[in-house]
């Protein structure tokens, strides 16, 4: 269990890791995540499940050294077992049918969007993506994302929100799904609310236990306290208090 099946480097900093865990592979759905310990006494770190193969009992995650995992990629070896893997965690995404969906992602947010893009495309949705070309995680997943999308806009960080807002006006968008920096999501959420377009956000909060005990990943949604690990990680972006979320993130950085 938790055996590393393969490691596929995309760059010196980023790799796709395939892990054997039949229990998680059978149960997981788009939007779920796992928490992994790479050392027995190490930190517990959440990762989006970007793909699952239930027939062979395998899940895929993306590991990026900028996530505080500078030593991890050099430590991992195919055939070795991870000390601990907990999942699937969180609530699965609501997958649409036959809608036009705009996906917006930056940094680690690009990774969490991939399974959602695939799942919605499989249900007949027409997908458009605006992604930060300055993120190495965009570069490594761009081919997979392009194969699922009608149009992909890789843009600079400075252009990102402006291009999203332009797409909202130029395309007949039914829904927006976003993941990335808090203040960027706040701005896009405000614009979609003004235009009457439903929007979901995938939150990336610091977690310890992943089952709602520690409370570190707590956010305010529609005036109520929610845990990102158990109630999320996907929420209605129009109901999230992004200012409160930003202030909490600053406390733990």
Report on this model:
The chain is of the alpha/beta class. The chain folds into two domains: 87 residues, Beta Barrel (Elongation Factor Tu (Ef-tu), domain 3); 152 residues, Nucleotide-binding domain of ferredoxin-NADP reductase (FNR) module (Rossmann fold). Helices cover 30% and strands 31% of the residues. The strands form four sheets. It has a six-stranded mixed β-sheet, sandwiched between helices. Strand 8, helix 3 and strand 9 form a beta-alpha-beta unit. Helix 5 packs parallel to helix 6. The chain starts with a strand and ends with a helix.
Write a short abstract of this structure.
This protein has 253 residues and is α/β, with parallel strands linked by helices. The protein has two domains: 3-89, Translation factors (Elongation Factor Tu (Ef-tu), domain 3), CATH 2.40.30.10; 100-251, Nucleotide-binding domain of ferredoxin-NADP reductase (FNR) module (Rossmann fold). 30% of the residues lie in helices and 31% in strands.
End-to-end separation in angstroms reads: 33 Å
State the domain count.
2
Helix content: 25-40%
Order of strands in the sheet with the most strands?
10-9-8-11-12-15
> Low-confidence runs (pLDDT<50, min 5 residues)?
none
Largest sheet: 6 strands, mixed
Tally of individual helices: 8
Tell me the name of the CATH homologous superfamily of the largest domain.
Answer: Nucleotide-binding domain of ferredoxin-NADP reductase (FNR) module
Mean pLDDT: 88
In percent terms, what proportion of residues is strand?
A: 25-35%
CATH architecture of the largest domain: 3-Layer(aba) Sandwich
- Which structural class fits the helix and strand makeup? alpha/beta
As for the CATH topology of the largest domain, it is Rossmann fold
- Overall, the morphology is globular
Written as H for each helix and E for each strand, in order along the chain, the element string is EEHEEEEHEEHEHEHEHEEEHEH
Total number of β-strand segments? Answer: 15
